[in-house]
Amino acid sequence: MKLFCLKINHSFCFCFFLPYSHHHNRETGNVTQISEFLLLGFSEGPELQPLIFGLFLSMYLITVFGNLLIILAISSDSHLHTPMYFFLANLSFVDICFTSTTIPKMLWNIQTQDNVINYAECLSQMYFFLLYAQLDVFLLTVMAYDRFMAICHPLHYTVIMNPRLCGLLVLVSWVISVLNSLLQSLMVLRLTFCTVLEIHHFFCELNQIVDHACSDTFLNDLVIYFNTMLLAAAPLAGILYSFSKIVSTICGISSAQGRYKAFSTCASHLSVVSLFYSTGLGVYLSSAATQNSHAMASVMYAVVTPMLNPFIYSLRNKDIKRALMRFSRMAVLKGPIV
Prior knowledge:
This protein is mainly alpha-helical. It has one domain (38-312): Up-down Bundle (Rhopdopsin 7-helix transmembrane proteins), CATH 1.20.1070. The protein has eleven helices and seven strands. The chain has helices spanning 49-76, 83-100, 103-112, 119-152, 157-160, 163-189, 206-211, 218-251, 256-285, 291-315, 318-334; strands at residues 2-9, 12-18, 31-32, 36-39, 116-118, 193-194, 197-199. Strand 1 and strand 2 form a beta hairpin. The longest helix has 34 residues, at 119-152. Pfam families: 7tm_4. InterPro entries: GPCR_Rhodpsn (IPR000276), GPCR_Rhodpsn_7TM (IPR017452), Olfact_rcpt (IPR000725).
């Protein structure tokens, strides 16, 4: 609240209180609709930039080629045309897009030594980042449901998880993710920013943008927390419920070989979910975290997790290994195209 007084005459003065947001405590002359942001990345020291460039370039190439190999292996092997591998191929595609929204721009900024990103480009990057992050959440949830049906209800699995339902689940995931990203982006459009905005991050992340706004961000914060609980925490609860039922069913299997086979199909998925959620939810629910810890946590779920997915899903999966070997032999036999 702020006190305002209106002088009526020399002997009488009328005073009243009006709400006042802490975001408006700057001079009005500094509040402008800026056209660009500065992405400061991890270090302003020029001596560390080549190391950071090489590290992120390597992780990006591994992510793209690793996930692309998973897609090609699944599409080329008819034995892998099942719901589980259909969702895995979609996850690999989304992971390629996920990292492609942030890493190329970061590498370009380091190479050109220019950290500027214009307002429209920043908003677009934020939109697509939110889109693919939400798709990751939904696909991990759908994959957990698929494993739940396969292990806990094997007799009904092929009937329930038919191609129509699988396609519908992916389509609904896309629609909700697009609408959520659009809502968050439109909420950012209503904000105003002060002078030059320096973001201590390597991309335009929603939390960072909202935190640097000069206008009132209460409504934005409310939408962010509500969406995080509804579209991230609720799917996580569904994943945990599915895996609790899976573990209960596995413990009831009499044969040790059967238990190992059932567990091996879920262990890789559970490890990916743990890594993605522990870092992702930490960024969006922890307001006390420092800027550096936010950036490092974002690297874990936005860069490291998509890079590790092909290794996690292929190393413990004999079907994927066989498909990759078969695909590599086919590529060698065909030889280079002249």
